[in-house]
User: Which sequence fits this backbone?
């Protein structure tokens, strides 16, 4: 940055984060502040057209808060996307109409800005590296346990992308071959065992099998809506032994996956985020103990698990950093 | 290579491959031919000093076959090593005296050559990329199922190294949480389920539980020496139903791990090698069917599993390529 002019140093970037629950937009300053932040529930039942229009509207509103014209728009999105083209692949948990959707091109035309689109986990990892829990780290894995399980790998300073930009799906590694069926169709993926809905379903199975239990009472009290992960978390905090057992088993699976990650990636750090993991802060210490004891040397001595510092803001802050990525940022600007 | 002088183009490199069973050495030509190849059983019961002396001797003999002074020595070794220094970490299946052994420095002094040391799986992956099954591929995973399970990942054209050069231990990912204890101490690693000795132990457990079975007869016929993977392979070929069942279960674990690998790395290719896998050629087709059906899109459409083309020569050929690696090759030469 030695030769950067003041204008470049004080640049802003428009950021959009399309999550499973919320769509958020903001102007992000070069030093990671959010201006004009907007947030609206993702109308997941609506058509792709409506969601696209909402995205463009929120981004446009957030742009009004920028003191200078933003350098471009970075978009962080749940589900798989081709980062080189901004076209969505068939996302497992969204309407089928999203498959092949040219999200990047649409927003470029609507907003007349350079646009880069990437997976939300990639964006969040970049944000933690620049502003959060792993500043300056060159080798780390970002793992988020939430409604789904997302992950991103930074190796030797670069995002692990794979042939199609779809690498990093650590939630779809089988950890329990006889476990529950996953949304992806396989049995016993980490996501099918440890994501929020999976925890709810485990509690539901337990309630069905044990009509007198506390979890059965919880189930009845919900009047037909499914038990969710946070219900189980609350029950465990209130001392329900079955809820505690379920969360302990989930924690063991997450911890074992983290040991696997240390053996596979030999990272300096693993950043653990997502609502489910943030509600179980003991997982951090348990994972650190387990990897010291069970991962291979020398990786076991180097790695350390740390909690996210940016939490829900990671995707939005990271979206703004996508335009700095050497691989696709440059490519999109050339297309302008 | 447009500006390469004839001498550089026709260079040779000395290569040493220190395996669990054999130590091999050769002069490798720039186009991948082996000259003056030497091979001797690894005296695994001997001291580190004796093994080092044998390595230096074999390399020196192989050097005599080189028509020009070799550019340096590349060493491919089983077990973890710091590729930047050539110092061995504590290898799981070799004498404890190897921990901290400065293999690179020793050979540099003995042979008066630039020396680069790396994991055998990394070397074999580079060899398959230059001379074998994945010429020109930028994103692939090399997986060898043999006495142990080794792996290397090439992502965006570069070896995945991790913070200490120890990344890629895909054999130490848990695939069967209730499975047999692994040499690394965890339960149910892929290596504890699918490597040759693990197959032998599974057959042994079956023989003990079923005294009248074909596997029990096989066990008795060995007079106290343990059943090994290749015995089970022969029994399966001869129609023994229990041996077939054991190998089918092992194949399913390997295939499931390959689907995991596709989700995690989004590779163009997976190269499957090693004695155990090469004896089960049906695993290639089974893995391709499974990943088409079960891996996430778009990775499932891109990936293809292919057999090794170089087999046992991969480590030796790849050792010679280590000196071309931008990261540590240059570093070692500067130390000269």
Assistant:
């Amino acid at each position: 940055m030695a030769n950067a002019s003041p204008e470049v140093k004080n640049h802003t970037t428009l950021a959009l984060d399309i999550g499973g629950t919320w769509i958020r937009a903001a102007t992000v300053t070069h030093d990671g502040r959010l201006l004009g932040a907007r947030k609206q529930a993702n109308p997941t039942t609506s058509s792709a057209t409506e969601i696209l229009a909402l995205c463009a509207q929120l981004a446009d509103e957030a742009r009004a808060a920028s003191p200078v014209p933003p350098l471009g728009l970075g978009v962080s999105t749940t589900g798989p996307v081709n980062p080189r083209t901004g076209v969505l692949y068939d996302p497992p948990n969204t309407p089928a109409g999203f498959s092949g959707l040219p999200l990047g091109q649409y927003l470029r035309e609507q907003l007349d800005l350079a646009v880069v689109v990437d997976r939300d986990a990639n964006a969040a990892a970049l944000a933690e590296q620049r502003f959060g829990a792993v500043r300056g780290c060159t080798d780390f894995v970002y793992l988020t346990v939430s409604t789904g399980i997302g992950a991103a790998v930074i190796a030797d300073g670069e995002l692990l992308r794979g042939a199609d930009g779809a690498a990093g799906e650590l939630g779809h590694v089988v950890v329990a071959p006889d476990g529950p069926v996953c949304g992806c169709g396989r049995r016993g993926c980490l996501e099918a065992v440890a994501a929020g809905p999976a925890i709810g379903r485990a509690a539901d199975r337990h309630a069905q099998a044990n009509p007198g239990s506390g979890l059965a009472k919880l189930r009845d009290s919900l009047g037909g809506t499914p038990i969710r992960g946070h219900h189980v978390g609350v029950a465990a905090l209130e001392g329900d032994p079955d809820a505690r057992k379920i969360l302990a088993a989930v924690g063991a699976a997450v911890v074992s996956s983290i040991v696997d990650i240390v053996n596979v990636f030999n990272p300096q750090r693993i950043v653990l985020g997502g609502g489910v993991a943030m509600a179980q802060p003991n997982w951090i210490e348990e994972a650190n103990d387990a990897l010291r004891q069970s991962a291979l040397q020398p990786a076991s001595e180097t790695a350390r698990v740390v909690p996210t510092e940016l939490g829900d803001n990671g995707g939005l802050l990271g979206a703004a950093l996508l335009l700095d990525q050497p691989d696709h940022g440059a490519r999109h600007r050339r297309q302008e």
